[in-house]
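Anyone? Bumping this.
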Amino acid sequence: MSLIVIVDDRVTNRNIFAKLAASIEEDVTVQTFGDPDEALVWLEAQSPDLVITDYKMPQMDGAEFIRRFRELPSSVDVPVVVITVYEERSFRLRALEAGATDFLHSPVDHHEFITRARNLLKLHKQQVLLASRASTLERELENSERSRERALRDSRERLAQVIDTLPVMISAAGYDGRLLFVNAYQIAFAGVDPSNVIGENVAGIFGDDHGARSHSLDRMVFETGKPLPSYEEEIVDRHGEAHVFVTTKSPLKDASEVVAGVLTSSLDITARKRTEGHLRHLAHHDPLTDLPNRTLLRERMRRLIARARRGDQPFALHLLDLDGFKAVNDLLGHSTGDRFIKTVGERLRNAIRPDDTLARLGGDEFAILQSQVNSTEDIEEFARRILETVSETSDFEDSGLRTTASIGIAIHPDDGLDGEDLLKNADLAMYRAKAEQGNHFCFYAADMQARARNEALLDGELRRASENNEFVLYYQPQVDLASGEIVGAEALLRWNRPGVGIVGPGVFLPRAEENGLIVPINEWVLREACREAKSWQRMGLRPVRVGVNLSPVQFRKRRMPLLIAQILGETGLDPNRLDLELTESIVVGDFDAVAQDLQQLLDLGVHISIDDFGTGYSSLSYVKKFPVDRLKIDQSFVRNLTTDGNDAAIIRAIVTLGHSLNLSVVAEGVETAEQLARLRAEGCDEVQGYYFGRPMPAADFIAMLRQDPPLAATA
Ligand code: C2E
Ligand code: MG
Ligand code: MG
């Protein structure tokens, strides 16, 4: 008989979780609470086997609830699962510190809920059983004063044997992190020499990562004198293979109740994790094509919608239905039909980007989530590519059949705020596309033409702006943290738009990249910035670099090293004073060609920075292969630096990585003295941001350079 307690302020959640919990095994009693305070009062007199709690509740949050629950007698071994929408490490750390055992991500996947809860229940029961066996043994020992000595000796020997043969890693360490005991299983796992282990440092024997984590958690046990609730961790064995363990740590007390060491035991649950992963995969994928199914599509949409609220780009849902599929099935039979669907799935998968999601909804219906869309044209081009991909499967297995598709498109947020609305509206659009005799796509919204018209107007205006020299450059100072001096300026493009005034690049840059005007515009930027910097040199001002942003589009269309060499020659600027800023997206396409261009640029003597570093993916690994000499940490990490531990950790990682590769690290978007102090402490080399100066016309920047002493604020 198990007792499961559920705490959640929303009654629907309580009902769903209670139902799921009741289905875990026979003989489960479920007790639910809407108010964590009430739950705590009730729990004082109870011993539950599992507690499941929401994180965000009006009365107190999940971490506070767990902390107070852990203060109750006999709550120590009870597993507690926290349900949270937050994926940030800081929330998880707070909950872990309060004593959480595990997490479930909200919205909760029912299957995952049941497996997790069942495993934790089992683990807890085993712990209870072990504890009761131990106390029986203790009682027996106490019964006979005479046999006690002998029994103790025997049981110690037996215990030592048992400990050595258990398939569990067991070790003990002292306050200074030196090992007091290690069992045979752990010695074999780590592949170390048993005679060298006792008295050694944990990190020395078990590697820096595992050792350092273990030592700092041991310190917590020493300080509180209490066991830590069990937690999952990944440990790499001597063959370099990662295993998942569930680890517990408890104090070893001497006769006078002083903590003399910490006992650590870790149970290998890799196989269980793998099974869980496999089951999860089955629940989320279509068996025929192994593509995500409707459930996973909905989940991905929920995530994209959550991200969009934080100001990300819109995304498009393409609902696709094959036009000729019935004929394939009827004429060639179902097994050919299945092969055909699989082939279409594979081709579509190759046609989309890694960030997009392709799902099979059943029958001949697929859905594609197109993330990161900048314009209507992006979406149209994508839909056209998909139609083409499908028609390439015509004459499947020499059938002579022509196969096409109809696509309905709904855009978030314009055509629906949630996944259901988007699916419904994309479906309506799809039927309109079908009515056009197939091989056609339709948008749900009717005002697509208006959108396109506005874009065309802006295109025209930009072309004129380029001819009439309506662009200007503003300069933003970059400051060296060690000396406090201005060492550079980033040139930032502005448009002096007739009838409007100065506008920033956000308004027109995406269009210029789209219609190709970015190439001549950015060429002007390069020339103008180099000319300006050369004039600073002539004026005898302090030597400073000028930073110029390059567009990935430009990089793809022009031989950059040639262009740069030419402009340097024309303007007479020392190459060392030019810093080219590139974003990670330039590598999309031909990695080797880009790397070669960059190397040639470095050979010219110019600097190369990766801009907005940390926002692209795989950045940390590929930067090692890239010939660049500076990293610019994106301002989004600086913004919450002093409040979000996660961002601070990312910045630390970027600085460490950069310095280990001999790159200098620049932080952008520094607005406050606190951020500045933190960046200095993390070891950044240079900073840029409103704190030192907003982007300003060249004349103002020159005045700033002339100022002496340079920047008192940074001293
Ligand atoms: P970026 O290269 O990351 O430039 C930094 C942006 O952050 C600039 O926005 C700057 O005004 C802003 N900024 C600087 N310090 C702070 C601060 O303390 N707080 C805040 N909130 N913002 C700060 P801007 O000028 O609007 O430029 C936006 C982006 O447009 C640039 O980002 C760059 O990617 C692009 N861009 C600007 N000029 C050019 C150009 O000539 N060519 C190309 N291809 N792109 C450009
Ligand atoms: Mg930049
Ligand atoms: Mg940037």
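Late reply, but here is one note on the structure posted above: Confidence is low (pLDDT under 50) at residues 709-715.
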